[in-house]
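My main concern about presentation is that the manuscript never shows what a single data entry looks like. For the editor and my fellow referees, an illustration may be useful. For illustration, here is how one protein appears when written out as sequence plus structure tokens:

***
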Amino acid sequence: MLDRDTNIPSTSLRGNISSIIDATLEGMRFVVTRNGKPRMAIVPLEDLERLRAIEDADDRRAIAQRRSEPLVAWEQVKKKLGLKSTPTRPPRSPRTPQAREAARRRRP
């Protein structure tokens, strides 16, 4: 019925989803197009798992490379990006026993 990598318009998905799923389970890949442009792919789960493994390996490699770089303070990053420092609020002071009693009396 379809080639290994088949372009399929998004408007055809609803009417053909069952056969698309069956073909995907047999290893076929589909490129879904919208207005003639490729927008997404429907691939077998094994392909997705391979892609995830590749991404994970790339992430681990990038992390390993970055570990040797010196740490940068958050204030330096904000300054470099032109972000304003956000003022920090002073910590709330604990209520005094008198303030707790006054608040309790105000409750209905």
About this structure: The first strand starts at residue 5 and ends at 9. Strands lie at 5-9, 29-34, 37-42. Residues 30 and 42 are 5 Å apart (CA to CA).
